Amino acid sequence: MNRLISQKILMVTLSFILLNLLKANYALAQTCHKDFLSASIEHSEHLPPMPKQFRTGCIFKGESLKPQKDSLSLYWYKIPDWSAGTWSCDSETIVESNNPKAVLNKPLKLEYTYVNGMQKDKKNNIWMGFVPNLTSTVEGQNSTIYFTETSKKFLYSKSDQYVVKTIARSIEVNKENFITQSHQSEAIDIISKEGENQVKDSVSVTWFDSDGNVLYRDERFKISHRVEPFKPMDKFKDIDLVDSFKNFLTDNGLSDLIPD
C-alpha cells in the first residue's frame, strides 16, 4: 500500500513538473516574441476560420485558388528607395520557436529572387502593389503545397526600416487530390537597410490552425542582396499596373502624384 501511494505521489509530482516546464517554455517563447517586435506591434491572438473548401480531408479543387485579376484589387504602399529593385535570397534562419520540430540557428536553403517596387509617382516616391490571393506552389514527391497570401498591411516606416504584416494560408494536397494539412500564418516583416545593396528581413510568424487558433510562434531572419536596380513595371500577371496605380492615387486624394 505504501509503495502504491509513493508511486502515485511520484506521478503527480512528475506531472506538476512537466506542466510547469511547458508553461516556462511557452512564457520564454512569448518573451522572445515580444523582444523581437516593437512594443507597438503585436500579433493577432486569433484569426477567422479558413473556408471549408481548404480544410483537411476535403477534396482539392484547383479553381478555388484562382487569384482576383481585377487591377483595382491591388493594395499599394510606399517603400524606401533603398529597398527597391530585384533581390536575391539564398537562406533563412529560425532563431526562436516554441515549435518542437523547428530547426534553430541553422540556415535553411531557399534560393529565390523577388521584385520590390512596381511604380514611381510624380515626386519619385516608389510604390509596391500587393495582389491578394496570388498562389505559389511547391512540388514534393508525394504532395503539393499551395501557399496563398490573402492580405497585406503596411504598418510604418522610417529612414532605415519599414514594417508590413501579411496573412496567408497554406494547404498540402496528396496525389489522391485530398487536402492532408491546412493552416494559416501571420507574418510581421521588419525590413532593415544593412548596406547599399543588402537588406535584412526579420520576420515574426504566428501559425494558426484552420479554425484560427494559435499553434506556435517563431522568429526568423533572411539576408537579401540587390541584383538589379528598380525598374517601373507596366504589367504583372495580366494586371495593368499603370492604370491600377493611377486609380489608387485618384481614389485616395493623391492625384497630384500621378506621373506624367
Q: In the residues, how many domains can be counted?
A: 1
User: What helical percentage do the residues reach?
Assistant: 10-25%
Shape label: globular
Mean pLDDT: 86
Please identify the structural class as seen in this structure: alpha+beta
Biggest beta sheet attributes: 8 strands, antiparallel
| Major beta sheet, strand line-up | 3-2-11-10-9-8-7-6
Task: Output the number of helix runs.
Answer: 2
Question: What's the Cα radius of gyration?
Answer: 22 Å
**Could you give the order of the helices and strands?**
HEEEEEEEEEEEEEH
Low-pLDDT runs of 5+ residues are: 1-35
Strand composition percent: over 45%
Strand count? 13
Q: Note the gap between the termini.
A: 91 Å
Describe the overall structure.
The protein is of the alpha+beta class. It has one domain. The chain has helices spanning 2-36, 241-251, and strands at 75-79, 85-97, 108-116, 119-120, 126-130, 134-139, 143-158, 161-174, 179-195, 198-208, 214-228, 235-236, 239-240. Strands 3-2-11-10-9-8-7-6 form an eight-stranded antiparallel β-sheet. Strands 1-5-4 form a three-stranded antiparallel β-sheet, covered by helices on one side.
